[in-house]
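User: I would dearly like some help making sense of a protein record. This is the protein in question:
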Amino acid sequence: MMKEFLETAPGKILLFVVVIGVWSVNFLNFSEIISSGNETVNRDIREISIDDLVMPVSNVYRYRPVSRDPFSPNNRVIVSSPVREEQRQPQEQPFRRPDLSLAGIIGEVAVITDARGESYFVSRGDSLVSSLVVDVKRDSVILTSRNNRFVLTLNTSKQ
């Protein structure tokens, strides 16, 4: 019934008058806010010193890289003790292959399990423990660690 009334000429005129009335009230209120508050805003801005605009130093948050990065699940941060002078001399140790096993391959993503039983989803170019994933094949993964290459194959833990 209201829709039919608004489609008639008197209904359209009434709607137009209501819209103009609401717009006028809002315009007058807005212009009053601008005219009365303008001087106050300008005066307050002039009273602000440059020291008030400097952000205070916050001591609330400090980044501590002793935990793992949540955005890189395969890279772990290892915290070590300070190195003494006698420890700084490079000692050539024989290559020891990381204790990893290939649990499965899904497309170009390999599921690798470490000695603790943690599983990692890796693809070509990802790092895992101290190794870099060189290639993911249909039934094996080629990794490199300290310039030594090794292969993990399905159903075997070491090759």
